[in-house]
Design goal:
The chain is an all-alpha fold. The chain has one domain. The longest helix has 15 residues.
Length: about 40
């Protein structure tokens, strides 16, 4: 069984995407930056 204390492994790209999603959830990322933050071009 997993708990919130268990470590996870991410690539730098996955970490960047996670941070971008976290900013969207927190309302800190502006709409125009979202496509770039998620790797869309």
């Amino acid at each position: 069984m997993y708990s919130y204390e268990d470590p996870i492994t991410m690539t730098m790209r996955e970490l960047d995407r996670f941070k971008a999603i976290q900013c969207v959830v927190d309302g800190q990322l502006k709409r125009r930056r979202q496509p770039t933050a998620f790797g869309s071009r």
